[in-house]
Amino acid sequence: MKILVVWGMEVKAPGLLERVRAFVPEDGAHVTIAVLFNKTSRTGWGDITSCDLMADIRAQAAAALGTSVSVTVESDDTDTISEWVLNKTGDGGFDLVVKTGHRSESFLHTPSDWELMRGLKVPFYIASPTKLKSRPLMLAAVDLDSNADKRRMAQHVLTHAARLTQARGATLEVVHIIPVNRALEEIDAVDPETVLYEKGPQARQALEHLLADSGVQASACHVLAGAPGRLVAKLARKRKADLVIMGSAGRTGLRAALLGNTAEKTVHDLKTDLLVVKG
Predict the structure, then answer these.
(1) Among residues 143, 259, 128, 121, which one has the least CA distance to residue 206?
(2) Cα distance between residue 228 and residue 245, in whole Å
(3) What H or E segment, with its residue span, contains residue 138?
(4) What value does the CA radius of gyration of the chain take, rounded to a whole number of Å?
(5) What is the model's pLDDT at position 237?
């Protein structure tokens, strides 16, 4: 397994390498740590040189990842993290990308997180600037649509969730959101509670069947109705989840700017780690 870790100079997540370790299989892995410099990051170091920083990162990697992982630390100058990462991973040589997250958003300027969610072909882990609990709670969000591609995506999400739950000794909960158009909800044309009453029992049964078919055990199943991105983030806060796992089909161009997808919309309100699984 090959993992690319984007070392954020402006936003640091405590335990970033410990997060990476949960993905390492028993037979080991190769981790490339990319230290990406820009003018802003360099001005905040004081007396620390780039050589000192690289040496410190190597020491942290050795302590956190152990002897079964080979580590390469490299550096580069860029003002566009997403473009650099997409170029680096374009040849298909990596199985996972991990980076610290940026929590900014505007219509005209798409943040690095959004660009990478749309452009990457492999799972993408966005680490929040918080420490993980010793026994974390993971929340997997799945779509129960009968469409074959979406069903495969749900299976991918549950597979990754099960592996991480075991690797971290975590508790897993699963959620499905029955989508309700937010514009119609705001003008009271659609009542989410009514939608939940009418469609909730069938959705819960379908969710339980999906878990059984996947061989995945969850400590709790949640079925809600409303805007998926907003409700996933709200439930993550309520349950004090450490990681949200969800799928993303990825969109580009004007369609992406206008619509986005559930994973992208969740990032705005989410204060925890996010693993975006690609179909």
Answers:
(1) 143
(2) 13
(3) strand 137-141
(4) 19
(5) 92
How many Cα atoms within 13 Å fall on the side-chain side of residue 5? 28
The answer to whether 41 and 9 are in contact (CB under 8 A) is: yes
Which strands sit side by side in the sheet containing 220-226, from one edge to the other? 69-77, 29-37, 2-7, 96-100, 124-127, 273-278, 243-248, 137-141, 171-179, 220-226
Q: Is 250 helix (H, G, I), strand (E, B) or coil?
A: coil
Residue-wise pLDDT tens digits, 28-67: 899 999 988 776 665 555 566 777 878 888 888 888 888 8
Which tokens hold the place of 143? 């779509």
Check whether 234 has a pLDDT greater than 60. Answer: yes
Helix (H, G, I), strand (E, B) or coil at 217: coil
Residues 6+ apart with CB under 8 A from 269: 229, 230, 233, 234
Q: How many residues does the chain have?
A: 279
Residue pLDDT, tens place only, 95-151: 999 998 755 544 334 578 888 888 899 999 988 767 777 789 999 999 998 788 888
Measured distance CA(176)–CA(262) in Å, rounded: 12
The helix/strand/coil state of 270 is coil
